[in-house]
Amino acid sequence: MTTAKEAGLVACRSCASVWPVAQEHCDRCGARLVSRHETSLQQVMAWWAAGLICYIPANMYPMLVTETLTSTQRNTIVGGAFEIAHHGEYGIAAIVLIASVLIPISKFMAIAYLCLSVHRHSAQSALGRQRLYEVIEFVGRWSMIDVFVVAILSSLVQLSVVASIHPGPASLTFALSVIFTMLSARSFDTRLIWDRSDCNNNELTEAA
Amino acid sequence: MALAATQVSDTKSESAVAKTASSELIACPNCDWLYQARIPEEGGRAVCKRCHTVLITTRQEAGIRILALGLAITILVAAAVFFPFLQISAAGIGNRASLLDIATSFRSGALVLVSAATVMLIVLVPLVRTLLLCYVLGPIVFGRRPAPHARIAFRTAQELKPWAMTEVFAIGCAVALAKVTDLARLEFGPAFWMFALLSVFVVIHDAYVCSWSIWKSLEDAE
Ligand SMILES: [Zn+2]
Ligand SMILES: [Zn+2]
């Protein structure tokens, strides 16, 4: 019962094959071999910070600019969701709020928590943190919904003077924020969670 | 879980491990736990005991099915680009949008990046990933030697996986529909249904792709 590292080996994260620790590239798939990504946390936090910096203006500036015969309306992300709810489409409003507010914010918190827990050699359940990481990775891409909606509407709603929709500056910063946080999550080396946990065996019997 | 745990056996002793770089060993990419690889029976999965990551899945005729689905996805993506996926009408004026229109809709400055990213994430990435998988698996399924650069092709295909967002776009269409209800009348065009079908195909396609099995068959075929 060992890890590849304890056995003096290095595992390839892209194809799961195992090599002597001195080897630099995987013979099977050609990926670079790193036993533990030592700078992983710095990378994660750099992307994380970039994502957060982009997320703030994404919420302050308009996402959509709607021009009709009588008025010009600028909607931020949250404003747009309330607008939808106002029309009685509560389910759709909930989707927008979850994808553009709940998911990004919980993602920022979860990544920060995972980095801190690894940094402080946390005794929290490794399996629980691994699960949290998997949820973050799975759910992150769904934040792109609002960006796609803006792209769809601004190419579709071009009805000369009757109505037209244009993308606001927030669409760019929000898209960047989603991409940066996805990169942040992907830079995280989950093996760091397991290295510093010593409660693996108890969890095993429970799960099996 | 019961099925899973029995399929991968732990490395028994240090001496077995010390042989190094043997293709018999498999390490969990998420938690680094070391196993003696044993291919589960057809339809079974080998799951990491420690972190529950699926390490190996075997499915009947996975190769040929990946190829068939890949072909279907390629055709659907190509068709979906040209057909309109939403149609709109208000005060006698109508408009329809295809993905081609989206690609050219953001004209002003930095916002061009948004339309470029949209088209990349929903058309280019899924298409390239599917074509790469067909390129890698085609020769293997038909018992030939792997195509040149098959390894880089497969690694790239796996790297692209999280960036293929077809299903997210399908939901985006539904949200767009709700967003302009008071402004104009919106209808789904043919390409929307292609996207819905495409999303289902992409999910099934991904389920058949077992990274470890493909790497092994690439190695064996050489
Ligand atoms: Zn490898
Ligand atoms: Zn594992």
Q: Averaging pLDDT over every residue of chain A, what do you get?
A: 86
Number of strands of chain A: 6
Give the proportion of residues in helices of chain A.
Answer: 55-70%
Structural class of chain A: alpha+beta
Largest sheet of chain B: 3 strands, antiparallel
Strand content of chain B: 5-15%
SS element count, helices of chain B:
9
Radius of gyration of chain A: 22 Å
Mean pLDDT over the residues of chain B = 81
Count structural domains of chain B. Answer: 2
Radius of gyration of chain B: 22 Å
What's the oligomerization state?
heterodimer
Number of helices of chain A: 8
Account of the protein in words:
The complex is a heterodimer of chains A (208) and B (222). Chain A has 208 residues and is of the alpha+beta class. Chain A folds into 2 domains: 1-35; 37-207, Butyryl-CoA Dehydrogenase, subunit A, domain 3, CATH 1.20.140. The longest helix of chain A has 30 residues, at 90-119. In chain A, strand 1 (9-11) and strand 2 form a beta hairpin. In chain A, 57% of the residues lie in helices and 11% in strands. Chain B is α+β, with helices and mostly antiparallel strands. Chain B has 2 domains: 9-57, no CATH class; 62-221, Up-down Bundle (Butyryl-CoA Dehydrogenase, subunit A, domain 3), CATH 1.20.140. Chain B is 55% helix and 13% strand. Chain B has 9 helices and 8 strands. In chain B, a hairpin with a 6-residue loop joins strand 4 (45-47) and strand 5. At the A-B interface, strand 2, helix 2, helix 3, helix 4 and helix 5 of A face helix 2, strand 2, strand 6, strand 7 and helix 5 of B.
